[in-house]
Each structure stands twice: as structure tokens, then as C-alpha cells.
AraC-like DNA-binding protein (Nocardioides cavernae), 271 residues
Amino acid sequence: MAAVHPALSPYVRSLVAYDVSFAGPGIHIGMPSTELTWVLPLDEPLGVAWEGEPGSRRVGWTSVSGLHTRPAAVEHGLRQRGIQLALTTEGARALWGVPAAALAGHLLELGDVAPDLADLPERLAGHRSAADALPEVERALLDALRRHRRPPQRPEVTRALALLTRGVPVAATAGDVGYSRRRLTTLVRDEAGVAPKTYQRLARFARSHALMRRAALSGEVSVATVAARAGYADQAHLAREWSEMAGCSPTEWVRREFPVVQATRGAEAAG
């Protein structure tokens, strides 16, 4: 996990240079979250599709996904090197010049979203490693931030998203920011592309995903404990959400992804 430049910190949640070796070709699960995912592979174009929807497959030197409630199938060979970024909803507007709502549920290439950054893969091609390429990515992001002087996300929406992330009920969040529930739903949907309740589900799922990752690394996996700590009513509730959002149970995810987790120990690559 690389340090994020202070000017970018409201917009870039994480910046990861990854270099992962695998026993053989396979599929990595791209998990839903409250962040937008941006991947810049270095060795070969990246193939990504919504799981179970081969017609959605995109192959390219960049991959961008908006908020989504279903898993993505990310293809890998024997080795993957590249840079992965997690952007806040405000980051889409600040760095790409588009609201996150315009990207929700979509798998795209960077040129589709931000044509002014379409040459970034070429600029990264000469770097010996993903870590060496990080300064080039940072420069590109800072340049983009200066170019896209769009109106910022409304402060009340920013606060509402923060409250929803923490698990505050939708009605209480609306009251806190001074809106009716209907008005809040409109504002959140216009900014993030999902309703407040869905955003809250994504935040809870992301917490459970992070907890499962840490549990897998420690070798002490307790789905019941993860369910309680993530804010689910019970283990069955967590299982239903994982079935929809990950396409598998938490324990199946550990079995499928644990080699990836082991290989990225210390890098904390976002899944």
C-alpha cells in the first residue's frame, strides 16, 4: 500500500502496487464496496467481466468499475503486476470529471471515462516494476485534479455517505443532514448511483470482506464472529449477502482466494 499524496487523500482511498504469482491461470473475484476500482495492469491486458455474464467481458490496459452489488470475474495468468486504486465517490468527479453515478454497475476502460488519461498505460509501460510506476501515476492524478475543477460533492451528501458507511439507519441519516428520506435518496443516488440502503449494504459487505481477509491471513476464520463485527443480524444474514454480492460463501471465498491473499501479504491489495 503506497502513501497517498495529501492533495489526493479525499479522492483516493488506497493506491496499491501489486506483483502476484499464481500456480496457474484462474479467476479472482472483484468484490463490491463503496469505492470505485481502477486497475492499471503492466504485463498484459486485463480481462474482466461480471460473474456469470460472459457478454460483459472487457479486455484492456485499464479497468474501471463503478459501485456494483455483484461480483466481477478478474482473469489472471501465472503472474500479475500493476497498480490498483480505490476511489471515493468524490474522486470520480475530481479526477475523471464525471459523477460516480454515471459509472455505477458498469465495467469500462479508462478512455471511456477520462479520455485525458487514456495515454497513462503507455506512460507506465517502460517502468521495471509496479512500485517504480507509482510516481508517474501520482503525477497523472495531480494533473487531473488541477484540470477537473468541477463543483465538489455537496457537504451534506459527503456527511450522509459517511454516516451510512458507519451503519447509521437511513432515516436517522436523513434527519442528521436535514433532509427528508426521499430527498436524501435522490441526492445519494444522483451522486453514487445507488440508493442509501444499497450504499449501506455495500459498506457492511466491505467491512465483512476486510474482516474475512484479516481472518484468512491469521488462519483463524470464524464466520459468526465476522457477521457480528460487521453488523449483520446473524450468520445466515451474512451468508445471503455474500451469495449475492460475492457469488459464494465466505468460506468458499477463503478457499478460492487465500493463495492470492498469501501472495499479497503486506501489500493489502483491495479485492
Residues 6-147 form a domain with the Jelly Rolls fold (CATH 2.60.120).
